Amino acid sequence: MANPSPGPRWGMVIDLQKCVGCDSCTVACKAENRTPPGVSYNVVVEEETGTYPNVRRVNIPRPCMQCDVPPCVTVCPVNATYKHDNGIVVIDKDRCIGCRYCITACPYGARSFDFGETYADEMQGADALQSPEYGVELGDRKKWKAPYGTVRKCTFCMHRLERGEEPACCETCIGDARYFGDLNDPNSLVSQLAASPRAFRLKEEVGTQPRVYYLR
Fold this sequence. Notes:
Elements: E1 10-15, H1 24-33, E2 43-51, E3 54-62, H2 71-75, E4 81-83, E5 89-91, H3 101-105, E6 111-113, E7 130-131, E8 136-137, E9 151-153, H4 158-161, H5 168-172, E10 178-182, H6 189-194, E11 199-200, E12 212-215
Parallel strand pairs: 1-12
Antiparallel strand pairs: 1-10, 2-3, 4-5, 6-9, 7-8, 11-12
């Protein structure tokens, strides 16, 4: 799918040889986006490769893939999920009806439903914090108020991109395993790494054309 905008085509490259599985990306993402219990946009999956006794563990960070052919967009009955001009897959919280078809359709498990749970019992003033992802006060999560009752996902911290900053997970990665930038710019590091022989994408066979690349 061609990018309709002449602007940047945001993408991410993750070097699996540098990822130490510290989960700092998971924590940074959760703090940045004020996600509730049970909702994490960035998780690190451990995978064992090789044959015993020659085995090793590989840490695979898994944000939203920001697919160029996103199945979550196709199945949404109210067009709440769509591709932004910059190529990032976003959710219109006011349009989402919480049917969760997109969660089923996503082959990467990158979407979560917000059941309205809260950290209020663990952290004073938790519900008074803003969610910069939406730019609104979450308020009383016991009441029906977006994003409560809707689907949530990683957006490459689009609110940070608009300020000229990189996603929180990239900024805090202690192993410098994450690279972020414009895939349309052939001179950008992320574009060059994505084109390297080491690069691959998850589940390429399903035809989603992810914008998250990994380095072997």
